[in-house]
Amino acid sequence: MYNLVLLAARPPDWTHERFIDWWRGEHAELTRRLPGLRSWRHTDLDAALEPRSEGWDGLSVLGFDTPEDLRKALDSPEWAAAVAQVGDMRGRRIAVMGGEREMHAG
């Protein structure tokens, strides 16, 4: 699996709950349409382990079969629509990509 991992923080004038509702609702409707999307996991972050990790609201992991499949999704009209919907809402994000390896299955 090749993943796009997004760590996101809400706009300064939104509550955590409003952001999660939007991200899992209205925004998810566009994200689900990405071509080649094989899996999608979303975590509602409610606590930080330590002070330097504070200030984030959600973690999203979008899985694709290959880096090329992810690149096609990022070049798609569906991705453009999702980006346009975010617009200038002034939240923060970290977006990284990489290959996944299962390290433990319980």
Properties at a glance:
about 110 residues, alpha+beta, 4-stranded antiparallel sheet, about 30% helix
Q: H/E order of the elements? A: EHHEEHHE
Uncertain segments: none
Mean pLDDT: 95
Shape: globular
Q: How many beta-strand runs?
A: 4
Structural Rg: 14 Å
- Helix content bin: 25-40%
Tell me the span between the first and last alpha carbons: 19 Å
Structural class computed from helices and strand pairing: alpha+beta
Number of helices: 4
Q: What kind of sheet is the major sheet?
A: 4 strands, antiparallel
User: Approximately what portion of the residues adopt beta-strand conformation?
Assistant: 25-35%
The main sheet orders its strands as 2-3-1-4
Protein name: EthD family reductase
Domain EthD: 12-84
Organism: Streptomyces mirabilis
Task: Explain the overall architecture.
InterPro entries: Dimeric_a/b-barrel, EthD_dom. Pfam families: EthD. This is EthD family reductase. With 106 residues, the chain is an alpha+beta fold. Helices cover 31% and strands 27% of the residues. The chain has 4 helices and 4 strands. It has helices at 16-24, 26-31, 67-74, 77-86, and strands at residues 2-9, 39-44, 58-64, 92-99. It has a 4-stranded antiparallel beta sheet. The radius of gyration is 14 Å and the shape is globular. The two termini are 19 Å apart.
